[in-house]
Amino acid sequence: MALVRGRRQSKLGLILPEITERRPRFSPPLPPTASQQPTTTASSAASEYETVQVLGHGNGGTVYKVIHKKTSNLFALKVVHAGSDPTMRRQIFREMEILRRTDSPFVVKCHQIFEKPDGDIAILMEYMDAGTLDSLSKTGGLLTERTLANVARQVLNGLNYLHAHKIIHRDIKPANLLVNKNMDVKIADFGVSKIMCRMLDTCDSYVGTCAYMSPERFDPDSYGANYNGYSGDIWGLGLTILELYMGHFPFLLTGQKPDWATLMCAICFGEPPSLPEAVSDEFRSFIECCLQKDSGKRWTASQLLSHPFL
After folding, report:
1. Which of 87, 166, 250, 276 is buried deepest, with most CB atoms within 10 A?
2. Is residue 195 within 8 Å of residue 258, measured between CB atoms?
3. Which candidate in 171, 189, 204, 233 is catalytic?
C-alpha cells in the first residue's frame, strides 16, 4: 500500500474544523442503538476523541485508533487526503456512499463522516481489535480448515448482502478483511467498489489489487463472455482463503516478488494453484468452485453458503 506523504502526515491530527458552506453535509446511517453512536458534531469532534495510535497507512490516508472520551469506546478513524485529486475524491465519495447504504454485521460499520475545508475526509468506523486477516496470519501462523470455514462463511454472508444490493467490492483480499479477537470478520475498504445501476452492467476495469484480480478482469475478451459483474469477488475470496491456508500467495512461489506481467501470466495462463494432498475433499471442492477461470462457472455467494465445506 502507498505510504502517506510526509508533509501531510506530520500535520495530521484529529482536529476537524466546521464543515464548510461550500460542501455538503453527509448523513451516515445510525447504528442499531443510540448508545453505540457518539452524538458529536464536526465542531466538537476534536474535544471528544483522542488519538491512541496509528493503525496503518494506505489509499492516500491514515487510519487511527481513537477513544471517545465520554464513553471510553474505541473507534477507527480513517482520514483520507482527497485534496484536489479528482480520482482520489471519486474513490472516497464512492466509499462514503457505500458506507451510508450498508447495514450488515459482516460489513464494517460507519458511525460518522466529516469533511474538512481543505478537502480531507474523516470517516469514524467501528474498531476491530485484531486488525486484518493479513496481519493475523503473519503473527498467528497458518489457519486451520475449521477456522477458514468460519472466515469464509462470514465473508460470504457479507458478499451475499452486498451483491443483493448490487454492490461489487472489487478488492477482496486478506488486508481488506477486518477481524476481532472473537474471530468476527467484516469486509472493509470500499475505495474501489462499484454500485451497479443494472444487473448486467460490466465491471472489468483495472482497479483493485492486481494480485487478486480475476482472469476476466485481466483479459475480458478471453474470459469475460459470461461475466456477470459479481464473480470477481468470489475469485478474490477463493485466493484469500487459499493464501491463509498456505501461508503465501497461491500463484507464486514462496518469497517470489510479483509484478503485473508475472501475475497476469500466472492467473490467466497458468495452472490452478495446487493444494496439499492433506486437505479435505470439501475444502478442495470449495476452492475449485471459487477459482474457476470461466467466471460463468464460478459459484455465487448464495450458492457457496450452502457448500459442504461450510
Report:
1. 250
2. no
3. 171
